[in-house]
Amino acid sequence: MIFETERLIIRRLCVEDIDAFHKLESNVNVLKYATGNPKSYIENETELKTLILKYNTSKNGFWIYAIVRKTDNQFLGTVALVKDNLDDEIGYRFLEEFWKLGYGAEVCVGLITYCKKLKMDKIIGYVVDENIASSKILENNNFKIKNTFINDEGLAETKYELYL
């Protein structure tokens, strides 16, 4: 376990997550707020195995973890933590059926606490402007707007930052 919140456990991904991981990473509605395009089952299986192998890489600065519900171990989505010399970035995405249930706000608070334990000074998050719910989550957790820009997919996006 990486960390937990009241209702959630954040843990390493495992090969048994493939079906739910594929459902997440091939959902057009989930990905419209993220970079990348829906992938095939085989592509997601390869990506999942690569992410799992990165856990054992000493100089890895990019981690993706599973978000699971405590009550039934249901896979809900993923969180990302990117360690960088300039900006340490957090991110999360949920399966569509778990939107608007408060899980995003809950995992954001957990990520902030976890980043403080890692002695990070500042974390950032990027949000496509159409994703109003995620913008509100960051703003409700005292993230401040750093700048806005057009991303590689041609979408308006905002960079938020929080000093810890």
Automatic annotation (TrEMBL):
Top-rank taxon: Bacteria
GO terms of molecular function: acyltransferase activity, transferring groups other than amino-acyl groups
Gene3D superfamilies per record: 3.40.630.30
InterPro entries: Acyl_CoA_acyltransferase (IPR016181), GNAT_dom (IPR000182), N-acetyltransferase (IPR051531)
Domain N-acetyltransferase per the UniProt entry, residue ranges: 8-164
PANTHER family tied to this protein: GNAT FAMILY, PUTATIVE (AFU_ORTHOLOGUE AFUA_3G00765)-RELATED-RELATED, N-ACETYLTRANSFERASE DOMAIN-CONTAINING PROTEIN
Protein name per its UniProtKB record: GNAT family N-acetyltransferase
Native source organism of the sequence: Polaribacter sejongensis
